[in-house]
Specification:
It is globular, with a radius of gyration of 19 Å. About 2% of the residues have low confidence. Helices cover 9% and strands 43% of the residues. The strands form two sheets. Strands 1, 4, 5, 6, 7, 8, 9, 10, 11, 12, 13, 14, 15 and 16 form a 14-stranded antiparallel β-sheet that branches. It has a two-stranded antiparallel ribbon with strand order 2-3. The longest helix is centred in the middle third of the chain and has 7 residues. The termini are far apart. A hairpin with a 5-residue loop joins strand 5 and strand 6.
């Protein structure tokens, strides 16, 4: 489907969308490059008082993905993504396999992601919480007894990072029976690649073991699912500095 919001020849379009090279989720703003016109893929963005809609525009002006961010009066933006454990089976049957949800919150140059599997339509499992900034990431495996108030999700999730070193043991891979733990990563941007290093657990910000390398497309970190993971492609072993 060709959309007017994906016309690369105009920066301001008749349907209200504005073209940018990419969308910065940390600042919730469109970002342009130094080129005269956006390079594929690029984004078309429209914003009102309550929502931001971002369309990803690929070749031939075709739109494949659309993201909607909603504004909350509590001073943050949020969105929710639903995936399937078996997307091919879902595509052919249109029935849920085991749906996987990621609730995302954006505030103060921080992205907070709360993810979980949903079994039998209501029972959550493998709950995880991730805090991302431009330079770092903290990943939590939540306790099986973790509870969250439906009308206070943002506050309850944000509270988990307060004194988290005391609440959660560092995941040193030695104690498999731990019910909850955290892992700290430092992100290093080199050219078009993001290097993700695991910290040594002492929070001294030195580069530890290399977990992942991602080569980004022109959408940068906004489009992580479309970027190339060369650490997996090359079947890299863990590399430590």
């Amino acid at each position: 489907m060709v959309l007017t919001s994906c016309n690369p020849h105009k920066s301001q379009l008749s349907d209200g969308y504005v073209l940018y090279q990419t969308f910065d989720e940390y600042s919730m703003k469109g970002v342009n490059s130094n080129d005269e016109k956006p390079q594929k893929p690029y984004v078309a963005i429209i914003k009102n008082d309550s929502a931001i809609t971002v369309r990803i525009c690929y070749s031939n002006g075709k739109e494949k993905d659309k993201y909607i961010y909603y504004q909350n009066k509590g001073g943050y933006w949020y969105s929710i993504i639903k995936d399937q454990v078996d997307p091919k089976l879902y595509f052919t049957t249109l029935c849920d396999t085991v749906p996987f949800y990621t609730e995302r919150y954006f505030y103060n140059d921080t992205i907070m992601e709360y993810s979980y599997y949903l079994r039998n339509g209501h029972k959550k499992s493998l709950e995880q919480l991730v805090f991302k900034t431009r330079n770092s990431m903290v990943e939590f495996n939540l306790s099986t007894t973790f509870r969250i108030r439906q009308n206070k999700k943002f506050e309850d999730l944000k509270h988990e990072i307060i004194d988290y070193k005391e609440k959660y043991p560092y995941d040193d891979r030695e104690l498999a029976h731990r019910d909850k733990n955290y892992i700290f990563y430092k992100k290093v941007l080199q050219g078009d690649s993001i290097f993700l290093y695991e910290n040594d657990g002492k929070m001294n910000y030195k580069l530890g073991c290399l977990k992942d390398i991602r080569i980004c497309n022109s959408l940068g970190e906004f489009d992580p699912n479309k970027s190339e993971n060369i650490a997996l492609v090359k079947n890299m072993r863990v590399i430590c500095k």
